[in-house]
Amino acid sequence: MSAPIKISDAMHTSAPPKLETRREAGVLLHPTSLPGRYGIGDFGNEAVVFLDWAASAGMTLWQVLPLNPPGYGNSPYGCLSSFAGNPLLISPQRLLQDELLQPGDVEDTPAFDADHVEFERVAEYKLALLRTAWTRFNEQGSAAPLRESYDAYVAAPEQGDWLADYALYMALKKHGGGAPWWEWDAGLVQWEPQAIANARLEHADEIGFMSFLQWTFFRQWSLVREAAQARGIRIVGDVPIYVADDSADVWGHQELFYLGEDGRPTVVAGVPPDYFSETGQRWGNPLYRWELMRETGFRWWVARVQANLRFADLVRLDHFRGFAAYWEIQGHEPTAINGRWMPGPGVALFEAIREALGGELPLIAEDLGFITEDVHAMRRAIGVPGMRIVQFGFGQDDSGHLPHRYEPATVAYSGTHDNDTARSWFDTAEEDERARALTYLGVEAEGVPWALIRAAFTSVAETVIIPTQDILALGTETRMNTPGKESGNWTWRMAAAALTRADAENLRQLGVICGRG
């Protein structure tokens, strides 16, 4: 028989060793949801007020949705460019401080809805303000400090050719009454050198204005990021796997996508039929020519990730499973039923990105939905965390989304921007799902939103991110997005001072207890 193990007195009295992993907590809030007088959240003082609150709550991460200019349906996941910033996030308050706007310019600001973004009204008003700022900027002369900053931005290597192409795309789109690029004159569609040169001359002022908006966007966002860094908060960005067919990305790089002679996609993205949809989801995005991208060392994708790391400190990759295998649908098919699985780029893409970033992969894999073992293997091979959603955990016993099943390399959420709020989810869930939740969480119904947060915080997941709506225990009227719903998404705005000191203190104390403080 082996000798009994002797436990020394020192082991009884010493403190337990600290975990080597970094345990963090963060908050999910898209900047458009911030309060303010201009109809949409922006990069002004309210963003700094929010950062102050987040820091007081012990948060070290602020997750945003894609910050690119949204296209159809105002979705940040269907953008006009993967490299540009959304001009509607530009703060008039900061333009007043720069004297590019004067107080009289904003005296007649309309009374906008405080709870939801009225995108059309806001765009009309803010773009008029931004054109006023552009005019005043041009009146300052070439030697003004702001002009020097603008010129340096436009000429910087980081802009490459994306800025010139995006500015021209937007100018041509305005000139064409918003028509998609494949309906433009043939010379512009096909990038004939003389047609492009003529267009650059004809629309020089509009191109300058679009470049000015991008300089202003990144200049203001850099101030917000500096404020976050000063408070110990990192920004988590978001990169959708696909891009919109009517975008500067596709127009400028048609060879990288499966397109017909008419410029329309011959095959499109989506997901197959599943428990949630008998016909699947036909997203309609053009699919990549991955083999051609491989031949170029994935140059375009590397540049895209590098550009988005100028928005954020790390990024979430949406629909991560599509990098292992993706669902291909013929362009003429009305639904996703008759699709097929096709191989994605796999680990090779991420090795190219890692090399370009000097050995780092500051990524989060959105590995939700129908996930096969090859997807898990790819994520582990590249060494990035996956996602789990506590709200998903109660549809069956011993679900992989329940906290007791997590692995440390996980980013845990109570819910995401695609989920209903915690409160509304529970109120509308099936009876057996509600029963599992109450048993697992050990609370009464009114305590479910906070219990979901506590369950995520106390899990072994190294990172926890909580939607603001769940911190505030809000209802379905504040839901950010309902997948499959074509209108009315992305509009929620938070009331001024909604996040309180009490909310912050509760989260801070929970974080300290759970090693996230």
Question: Would you give an account of this structure?
Answer:
This protein has 19 helices and twelve strands. The two termini are 46 Å apart. The strands form two sheets. An eight-stranded parallel sheet has the order 9-6-3-2-1-12-11-10. A four-stranded antiparallel sheet has the order 5-4-7-8, with no helix packed on it. Helix 6 crosses helix 9 and helix 12 crosses helix 13. The radius of gyration is 24 Å and the shape is globular. The protein is α/β, with parallel strands linked by helices and 517 residues long. Helices cover 38% and strands 11% of the residues.
Poorly predicted tracts of residues:
1-20
Sheet with most strands: strand arrangement: 9-6-3-2-1-12-11-10
Report the helical percentage: 25-40%
Kindly estimate the percentage of residues that lie in beta strands according to DSSP. 5-15%
Q: Major sheet: size, sense and barrel closure? A: 8 strands, parallel
How far apart, in Å, are the first and last alpha carbons?
A: 46 Å
Task: Quickly count the helices.
Answer: 19
Shape type: globular
The residue-averaged pLDDT reads 94
Q: Strand pairing plus helix content: what structural class?
A: alpha/beta
Number of strands: 12
Rg over C-alpha atoms, rounded to the nearest angstrom: 24 Å
Oligomerization: single chain
Please sum up the structure shown.
With 517 residues, the chain is an alpha/beta fold. It is 38% helix and 11% strand. It contains 19 helices and twelve strands.
Key terms for this structure?
alpha/beta, 8-stranded parallel beta sheet, 12 strands
